[in-house]
């Protein structure tokens, strides 16, 4: 089978398609014929060797994919060949034509969603759900500020927030980014490149600030987030590309809390609860992934550049 293999940490050019033996499922595992693969920013950090968790070289990247069950291992009775599924994590990575996955990380793909949309579920929607409801404890009637709401996680956070009855303020890059956020249904969509957009946020909240802030680029925005948070506000750091200096008094004066968040820390039990909750949203139509760009498997280097580029619009996927 064809797969992307990383033999050395480095730039996007280290992502190279090679021929590898097709894997076989073991006990409690399924073999998935991959139809679409989700590309996430964290995969670029791992590839570059700057992420705290480093896989042993060589490795096949990727966490999110969707496809069809091709074979099942002993005890994997929850699925059968021919089932449409989406997966979060695989035994050997998912940037490949086939992947072996534990059944605890395999979920039914609703008929209403395409394989490309299925590849946009695992990391983006689980991240958004955990950030909003597990870490921030967002409640109906509160106001949420979602930075980078035009990206994969941001778009998922907008949809989940709307479904939960939150007032949504989302930001995107440029007028087109803001328009895309508005098209997702956000109550207010702002251009975070525009001067004075933070003043607009204060105005939209009557000067009170946002109860919950979902932060995708903490090294740039965290100091301002402390000023934009409401009394008792909760800031959830979903992404950061470096260190940042803050004044702790800005958190003290309003009892603002800052929460870190990583899917690596989620237990299997919590993961099952999150995906069960997401399944209800997919079935009801409230949650619907938006695909921004598609690349072939050999286009993985360009996909890694695109996922970090300014002006993201929805999810980037690879098609094997």
Structure description:
This protein has 320 residues and is of the alpha/beta class. It has 2 domains: 151 residues, Quinone Oxidoreductase, Chain A, domain 1 (Alpha-Beta Complex); 141 residues, NAD(P)-binding Rossmann-like Domain (Rossmann fold), CATH 3.40.50. The chain contains 10 helices and 15 strands. The strands form 3 sheets. Strands 3, 4, 5, 6, 7, 14 and 15 form a 7-stranded mixed β-sheet that branches. It has a 6-stranded parallel β-sheet with strand order 10-9-8-11-12-13, with helices on both faces. Strands 1-2 form a two-stranded antiparallel ribbon. Helix 10 links the parallel strand 14 and strand 15. The termini are close together. The mean pLDDT is 94.
Short description:
By secondary structure, this protein is an alpha/beta fold. It is built from ten helices and 15 strands.
């Amino acid at each position: 089978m064809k797969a992307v293999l990383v033999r050395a940490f480095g730039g996007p050019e280290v992502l190279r398609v090679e021929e590898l033996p097709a894997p076989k499922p073991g006990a409690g595992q399924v073999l998935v014929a991959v139809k679409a693969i989700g590309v996430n920013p964290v995969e670029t950090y791992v590839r570059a060797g700057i992420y705290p968790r480093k896989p042993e070289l060589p490795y096949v990247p990727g966490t999110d994919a969707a496809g069809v069950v091709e074979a099942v291992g002993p005890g994997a009775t929850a699925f059968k060949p021919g089932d449409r599924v989406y997966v979060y994590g695989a035994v050997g990575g998912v940037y490949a034509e086939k992947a072996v996955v534990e059944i605890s990380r395999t979920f039914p793909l609703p008929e209403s969603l395409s394989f490309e949309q299925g590849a946009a579920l695992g990391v983006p929607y689980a991240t958004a759900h955990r950030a909003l409801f597990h870490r921030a404890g967002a409640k109906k009637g509160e106001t949420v500020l979602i930075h980078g709401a035009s990206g994969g996680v941001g778009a998922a956070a907008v949809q989940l927030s709307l479904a939960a009855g939150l007032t949504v303020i989302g930001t995107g890059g440029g007028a087109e980014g803001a328009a895309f956020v508005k098209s997702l249904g956000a109550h207010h969509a702002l251009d975070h490149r525009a001067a004075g957009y933070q003043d607009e946020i204060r105005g939209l909240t009557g000067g009170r600030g946002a109860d919950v802030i979902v932060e995708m680029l903490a090294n740039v925005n965290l100091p301002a987030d402390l000023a934009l948070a409401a009394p008792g506000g909760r800031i959830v750091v979903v992404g950061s590309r470096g260190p940042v200096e803050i004044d702790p008094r800005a958190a003290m004066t309003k009892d603002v809390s800052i929460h870190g968040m990583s899917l690596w820390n989620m237990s299997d039990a919590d993961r099952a609860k999150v995906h069960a909750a997401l399944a209800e949203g997919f079935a009801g139509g409230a949650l619907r992934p938006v695909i921004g760009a598609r690349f072939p498997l050999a286009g993985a280097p360009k996909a890694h550049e695109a996922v970090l580029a300014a002006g993201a619009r929805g999810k980037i996927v690879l098609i094997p």
